Amino acid sequence: CYRGKETKITAYVQLFLGGPNVTTVPVAGALGRPRIPEEFGTISVNDARLTEGISINSLTVGRSQGLYVSASRDNVNSFDLFSFLFTNAQYNGSTLEFQGPGLDLQNVTTVREVSVVSGTKTFRYAQGYATFQTVLRRPAMNYTVIRGIVTIRHY
Prior knowledge:
By secondary structure, this protein is mostly beta strands. 0% of the residues lie in helices and 56% in strands. The chain has strands spanning 5-16, 24-28, 43-51, 60-70, 78-86, 95-101, 111-120, 127-138, 143-154.
């Protein structure tokens, strides 16, 4: 019988896919192919603000950092490994680790579910799942907001 506690967290990832505040950068790709996040074989890294609300001016609660691999020939899916690193008072220094299929940022109706595979500090031995959905897109600003709803069990 599992005797841990259940925690639910909603947080927003503030992404800039271009411009001076870029948060996602392609770092490697298939030889002879364009190095863009949507191209099969491209590997991108991400370091974005994690906020408590959808607004760009919302309180920062941490960072979302990770590695994203474009893993489908039809450019629809990626394989994502990323972390939430919390800096807010409640979870300061704690992390959650995610693994699973990536989010099609262009499609605001798509909801993706990924595994929570681990955690640290407050979230030691965390296991669970999270859903991610694009909730705001401003293409002219290269700006996208993704809502993450995380449900975990931990000690």
